[in-house]
Amino acid sequence: MTETPGEGRGRSDRVYAPDFLTELFRNPLDPGYADAAARRRERPERGWRRWSGRPLSLVVLVVLGFLFAVAYRQTMADEPGRSQVRSGLVAQIKQRETETDRLSERAERLRAEVARQRAAALGGSEAARLRTLEAGTGLGRVRGDGVVVRLADAPQGQDVVQGGDVGPSRVLYSDLQVVANDLWSAGAEAIAINGQRLTAMSTIRSAGQAILVDYRPVTGPYEVSAIGPEEMRERYDGSRSALTMRKVAEETGLSFGVRDAEDLALPAAPEPRLRYAEPSVSPSPSPSGGGRSVSPGPSRSGTSPSPSGGG
């Protein structure tokens, strides 16, 4: 099939070979598009069409450049203020940490002095019994053999295979909770986390990325030291937390290890602030006459106890 020149200007002949598909892929452009392009080259567009869009584009570029310049200047102007505020906060944190450490040392000295005065006033047998009770409740220093469980976050940038059910590659507050609970179950008599002694009233919580033990922050690596019988190590190695943490360490790169330790020295926990509930006595007589009415205070669960409870 042959197409000869016709009325269109500059139309070239196009011969289709017997293999139509091969020819179509070889010359995909229709002659009509080539003719239109040739006519545009011979008859250029008017000047206003060519240049009408350029001023608008130039204005947009100028406005964008001005906005970027203003934003950059504002950012650079605010940077000294932000740096100063950040430096001030860091200085305050360091100052408060220094004051906290100083007050903790003073409290330790005062506690030791109170213990000496109390032992002198009680006598030998009563003082020994008191020391035994303090060691059991966490309010006294203890020494002995035991184990140390060490946990640490995975190194930054380490290429590890993340498991879908093992969590992040950093130590969580719940990890310390289960480790401490399983150590208690294994027979531990005293436990401390990074020097913070645990008692029956201790809490292990999180505040953002920080871990708090009795409302005091602890940082990694975390060492859970426990004093107990010789078989405590073997019991803990078979516990659920030990098996779980070893699996987490293999899949995330988190560091987990258990070792025996001799002559561990665990500090005393701060003395708790005990609160006692007392009934408020009203001076007005009860409706039944005779006695005074007792207004029950709120209980721990938030509900009021029955005033007819036993005394």
TrEMBL record:
Residues 293-311 have a biased composition (Low complexity). Gene3D superfamilies: Protein of unknown function DUF881. The chain crosses the membrane at residues 51-72. Keywords: Coiled coil, Membrane, Transmembrane, Transmembrane helix. Residues 267-311 are annotated as: Disordered. Signal peptide: none annotated. Residues 93-120 form a coiled coil. One of its GO terms (cellular component) is plasma membrane. Pfam families: DUF881. Belongs to the UPF0749 family. This is DUF881 domain-containing protein. It comes from Micromonospora endolithica.
